[in-house]
Design brief:
The protein is an alpha/beta fold. The protein has ten helices and eleven strands. A six-stranded mixed beta sheet has the order 7-8-9-4-10-11, sandwiched between helices. The protein is globular, with a radius of gyration of 19 Å.
C-alpha cells in the first residue's frame, strides 16, 4: 500500500444511532483508505444501510463523528454531500422509468452544473451551453458502464442488470471521490455479477474512486474487496482482509456459516 493509499478518506469515530429503544449502530469506528475497495458486511439488521444513511446525512447520528477528507461531515447538509465528492447507489435504484437512460444520468450530472436544473428549463444561453457539456459527460458515463447504445431508451424498458448499470452511470457522472454501493449486484445473474465486479475495480484503478460497498453476495465481495468490516447487531465485530475475515471465528458464527470460505 502506498503512503497515499494509507490515508483515510472517510473515517467515523464511535458512531452510533438509536431509533427509540432500538440500537441500530453502536460505537462504530470505521476507516476507509484512499484508493481502496472497502466492504461493509453483516447479517440482515446488522446496521449496514443505517451506516450509509449516517454517512450521507440522511439520518442524524445519536453519537460519534464522521470525517470525509478531514472535514466534519456533521456540519454538512444532506443535499451538499454530492458536492463534497460522495455519490451513492441505493439498493432500490429509484430510476425515472419514463425518462431516457441519458436523461436519468443527466439528473446526476446537474449536481456539477453552475446554472442548475431550474435555469436549464428557462433555456438561457448559459444553460444551453452547460447542458451540452453535461450531456457529453452523461454520454461518457453511459459508455463507461457499457450502455452507450441504450442512451435514448426509456429507463423503464431496461433489464434489471441494465438498470443497475444505469444507476452506476448516474452516480459516477459527478466524478465522485467516494462511491457508496448499496447491494449493487442484488438480483443480477452470475455473468452480470462478474461484469459488475470488473467495473468496480476499473473505477478504482482507472478513475481513482474509493469505494465503500455493502453487499449480501459474499463471493462478489470476497472477489473485489481490499478490506472488509463486519457488523453484527450494529456493532463492529471484525475487520481485515478478505482472507482474515473469512477465517475469523466470530464472523463465521455470525454470518458466513461454519466452514464456508474457510480457505478463502
Amino acid at each position: 500500500m502506498t503512503a497515499l493509499q494509507s490515508m483515510a478518506l472517510l473515517e467515523t469515530q464511535a458512531l452510533g444511532k438509536k431509533f427509540g429503544g432500538l440500537v441500530a449502530v453502536e460505537n462504530v469506528s470505521l476507516r476507509v483508505a484512499v484508493g481502496q475497495i472497502h466492504a461493509l458486511i453483516g447479517p440482515n439488521g446488522a446496521g449496514k444501510t443505517t451506516m450509509l444513511n449516517l454517512l450521507t446525512r440522511i439520518v442524524e447520528p445519536s453519537e460519534g463523528l464522521v470525517y470525509f477528507d478531514g472535514h466534519d461531515m456533521l456540519q454538512c447538509r444532506p443535499h451538499d454531500v454530492v458536492g463534497r465528492g460522495i455519490s451513492r447507489i441505493f439498493q432500490h435504484m429509484e430510476l425515472f422509468p419514463q425518462l431516457t437512460a441519458i436523461d436519468n444520468v443527466l439528473i446526476g450530472a446537474y449536481s456539477m452544473g453552475r446554472t442548475g436544473f431550474v435555469h436549464s428549463l428557462l433555456a438561457s444561453k448559459a444553460a444551453r451551453d452547460e447542458r451540452m457539456d453535461l450531456m457529453e459527460r452523461a454520454r461518457q458515463a453511459l459508455a463507461y458502464v457499457g450502455l452507450a447504445a441504450l442512451a435514448e431508451q426509456l429507463a423503464g424498458t431496461l433489464t434489471g442488470g441494465q438498470g443497475r448499470l444505469l444507476g452506476l452511470a448516474r452516480a459516477i457522472v459527478s466524478a465522485p471521490r467516494l462511491l457508496l454501493l448499496d447491494e449493487l449486484v442484488a438480483g443480477l445473474n452470475s455473468q452480470e455479477r462478474e461484469d459488475a465486479g470488473r467495473l468496480v475495480r476499473r473505477l478504482r484503478d482507472e478513475r481513482g474512486i474509493t469505494v465503500l460497498a455493502i453487499e449480501h453476495d459474499m463471493r462478489f465481495i470476497m472477489g473485489i474487496a481490499d478490506r472488509i468490516t463486519v457488523l453484527d447487531f450494529g456493532r463492529m465485530i471484525a475487520e481485515g482482509t478478505p482472507a482474515e475475515v473469512s477465517r475469523n471465528p466470530a464472523v463465521i458464527e455470525a454470518y458466513l456459516g461454519k466452514g464456508r470460505y474457510g480457505h478463502a
